[in-house]
Each structure stands twice: as C-alpha cells, then as structure tokens.
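Need fresh eyes. Consider my entry:
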Amino acid sequence: MPRFALLVEYHGAPFAGWQRQADQPSVQGAIEAALAKLEPGEHTIAAAGRTDAGVHALAQVAHCDLSKDWDPFRLSEALNYHLKPAPVAITRAARVEDDWHARFSAHERRYTFRLLMRRAPATHDAGLVWQVSHQLDAAAMREAAQHLIGLHDFTTFRSSICQAASPVKTLDELTITEVDGWSGPELRFFLRARSFLHNQVRSFVGTLERVGAGAWEPERVRDALEAADRSACGPVCPPQGLYLAGVGYQDDPFQAQK
C-alpha cells in the first residue's frame, strides 16, 4: 500500500484536539472521513504531534496508507474538496517510503505562541491569540526564558496527565520577539525541541507572562524548574495562541513539492 505524507494546516477552535474521539470532532477524524470518501473503508492516520483542543497548526505532518498510487497533488486537492467546510487544509502531499513515519521519523518540532497586549477585545484575531490587557516586560521574560533552555527535568512544566515516559527533555530554543501586529503589540514565542511534554509550551508561556507582568522575578523560573514539582509552575495559559509551526525530518518529504 503506498504511503503518503500530508502537510496539514488547521484552525483548532472547532476541534477537541488532533486525536480522534468517539463523541467530539477532531482533526484526525475529519481527515480520516475525507480519506474514506476517496477510498471507502477504515482509515487510520498518524501525526507528528497530538495538539490539544483549541491549538492550531501551520504545518502539522501526518501520514496515511492508501490502495491507489495517487498523484500527490491530486490527492491533496481531493482531500481538500472533501474536508470542506472544516477549517482544515492539506497544503502538500508527498509519496514516502513504506517505513517512513510522521511521528517516529521526526527529529524536531517547532511551536509558535502569539500573545496580544491590548485592553480592547480582539476582533480579527479573536481565537488566534492569547490576549492580556497589560504591557509586559519582554526583556525580563527573555532573561527568565534562558533558565529553561537545555537539558532539564521539566516535571514542573508538564501536565499531571502527561504520558511521556520521562520528564527529561532538551529545549533547543526559546526566543521571544516583539511584533507590531495588526491588532496591536504582540509577543511571539518560538520554541524548538525534538519533542515536548503535554502542556509544556503553555506552562512556559503562562509562567513567563507572570515575569513580564512583574509578579515573578526572572530567577523564580529557575527555582520552579529546579523544584521539579508541578505546584511550582505558574498559570497554564489558554490554548488559542499556540501553533504547531513545523516538524523537522532528516529528509524533508515535501522538499520536492516546493
């Protein structure tokens, strides 16, 4: 059976997350239903990461096995037709080797988080940013973020229901950029690692927001990390500002499609 990689973009608001669920809409379920319109029968796809309810993706990666050796462009076009009106798009498809796996072949995940700072309610960016009504000290947040980069036990910053075998991970990058967005001043967080723990990014951002607001000193983030205790974490921020921005592979299956 030919295997295809799919580059997937979606707005997470209508979904209970990526993973298929029996009684709630999911991104995985929407794509599998579209595949069943092309080739009748049961379809199970795998993804590079399982985003939570309300989290978006700019470049999620999944793979599927099909009976027909589809032209990748025609496959993406056909899936997009059957995905309507769900806010999910297959931006590229590519034929891959039978042993290629969207999750296990990946060596890097990249996330972006958007934080909007303004008092008036967001309109055009509603559901796409986390909005706070106060200005934040980006320099203090950057100082605090340095404590999180590298190899650490991230017990403090993972959900109590996280299923990862170990809390020890390496965070390769956490940068914070000030952006003059359409709706007002934003802070954009860019995070890069081989893999992330459940709620790790949202725990980071919620904690760093406390530093930016002046409620925490930057060194308190170091102390929270070293505590290896979930109760030492700051607030977990809401999901709507979080985007799975990309997945890295040794050989990019979509390179030939660009």
Remarks:
- The chain has five helices and ten strands.
- Helices lie at 27-38, 72-83, 138-145, 200-212, 218-227.
- The chain has a mean pLDDT of 96.
